[in-house]
Amino acid sequence: MNRGYFITFEGGDGSGKSTQIRILMDRLRESGYDVVLTREPGGTEISEKIREIILDPANSDMDDMTEALLYAAARAQLVSQLIKPALEEGKVVICDRFVDSSIAYQGFGRGLGDAVGVINTYAVDGCMPDLTILLKLDPARGSSRIAGREHDRIEQASDGFHRKVYEGYLELEAKYPERILGIDASGTIEEIAEEIARRVGAIMK
Ligand code: TMP
Question: What whole-number distance in Å separates Cα of residue 120 and Cα of residue 106?
Answer without folding.
Answer: 11
